[in-house]
Each structure stands twice: as structure tokens, then as C-alpha cells.
Amino acid sequence: MERVCLQNGFTLIELTLGITLSIILISMSLQISLHIQERLEKGKSAQLMQMEASSFFHYLEREMSCTDKVYISKKRMFFYCDQVRYDYKLNGNYIVREVDSKGWIEVCLYVKEFDISPTPGGIKIKLIMQRGTTKWQAQTILAYSL
User: Fold this and answer.
1) pLDDT digit string (tens) for 129-139?
2) Measured between alpha carbons, how far is 126 from 113 in angstroms, rounded to an integer?
3) Greater pLDDT, 8 or 89
4) Please, are residues 73 and 90 in contact by the beta-carbon 8 Å criterion?
5) Among 64, 106, 126, 69, which residue's Cα sits nearest to residue 97?
6) N or C, which end of the chain is more exposed by having fewer CB within 10 Å?
7) What is the pLDDT of residue 66?
8) SS3 136
């Protein structure tokens, strides 16, 4: 009688090696996906802050179109347009706008620094913004009517 030896299955070494390689591949895939997610979140934050700063600058430029003088103090500026006082100031992490000292509205979020300096016929505004660990810096020069 002839003896038949069947070898079905894996040895313990093959099984251990297969599991080890699978764990390494899964952990590498997880690290790569977490890195991609982090980069996407930073890009999203930067884009959001850029849009926020751009909207604020356009909004302010539109309102300043009828003034001939801007008053600047530390982290604050105000001007008059058609005998209405517009006041912009840093309040915590955002810039607020008051009209004739009646209430306020947030016009720019994520603001870490708000610097205003005079220029001939206008003002220079510098914003440093931060959302989470992402920072964004924007600046512009706005002219007012003469």
C-alpha cells in the first residue's frame, strides 16, 4: 500500500510572515491616509482664511468709498460716511463692525493680529490669521475718496 502525503494549508512560519506583512501594509496605508487628511485640512483652513480676508477687504473698500479721512488707533479704525460713523476693531479672534455705536457684527474671523497704518490718501491693513495650526497673512492698501 502506497502512502499519500497531502500538504494542504500553511506552515506556522508562512502564516506569521503573511500576518506581519499585512499589518505593515495596513499601518503604512493608515499613516499615508492620515497625512493626506491633515494636508487637506490645512489647505481648507488656508483657503477659508484667504476668502475671509478677501471678503473683509472688499467690504471695507466699498464702505470707505465715501469718506475722506480715516481715524486710526491701536487695533481700531473708524471713519464717517454720510454722517454715519463706521467703527472697525479687533475683538478677540475677530474684527467687529459698529455703525453709530449701535450693536456690532463680526466681519472677519480667525484674526490673530489686526494692524492699521496710514498711507498718503489711504490706509494699509495687515491681517495675521490663524485657524488651528494653519496661519495666513494678508495685507492691502485701501484708498479713500479725496
Assistant:
1) 999 999 999 99
2) 8
3) 89
4) no
5) 106
6) N
7) 85
8) strand
Indicate the SS3 state at residue 77: strand
> What dihedral angle (degrees, nearest 10) is formed by the CA atoms of 54, 55, 58, 59?
-150
Instruction: Supply the pTM of this predicted model.
Output: 0.76
The cell numbers describing 2, all together, are 502506497
Map residue 59 onto helix, strand or coil: helix
* 108 in Cβ contact with 96 (< 8 Å): no
Give the residue from 79, 143, 146 showing the smallest Cα distance to 88. Answer: 79
Helix (H, G, I), strand (E, B) or coil at 3: coil
Cell representation of residue 106: 463680526
Alpha helix (H) ranges present in the chain? 12-63
